[in-house]
Amino acid sequence: MPEYEFVDVYVPRGVSRKEATRLLTDHAEYGHWELYRLSLMRDGSRRVRLRRRIIRQVRATW
User: Fold this and answer.
1) Strand (E) positions, the chain?
2) Which domain of life does the protein's organism represent (predicted)?
3) For residue 39, what are the CA distances in angstroms to 14, 53, 55?
4) What was the pLDDT predicted at 56?
5) Is 59 helix (H, G, I), strand (E, B) or coil?
6) What are the extents of the domains in the chain?
7) In 10 A of CB 5, how many CB atoms?
8) Contacting residues for 3 by C-beta, under 8 A, at least 6 apart
9) Is 48 exposed, middle or buried (CB count within 10 Å of its CB: 0-12, 13-18, 19+)?
10) Sheet hosting strand 3-11, strand order edge to edge
11) What does residue 21 show for φ and ψ, rounded to 5 degrees?
């Protein structure tokens, strides 16, 4: 089963949808993160949880 690392991003309510999309796109493109969960809070802010796969390299023994 794959292992993942997670990061939480808080987007305040004053940030437009377009700016939030750009922020998450940058995380995905340059940090290799993918969207795991997005929660829209009552006050209009967003709590985003991103994940990326942890790739463990096997040590070569020769």
Assistant:
1) 3-11, 34-40, 46-54
2) Bacteria
3) 16, 21, 27
4) 83
5) coil
6) 3-54
7) 10
8) 53, 54, 56
9) buried
10) 3-11, 46-54, 34-40
11) -60, -40
* Structure letter (DSSP) for residue 57: P
Instruction: Give the per-residue pLDDT at 57.
Output: 82
The CA dihedral of 39, 32, 4, 19, to the nearest 10 degrees, is -10
pLDDT string in tens for the chain (62-residue length): 789 999 999 999 999 999 999 999 999 999 999 999 999 999 999 999 999 999 888 887 77
β-bridge mates for residue 31, sequence order: none
pLDDT of residue 59: 83
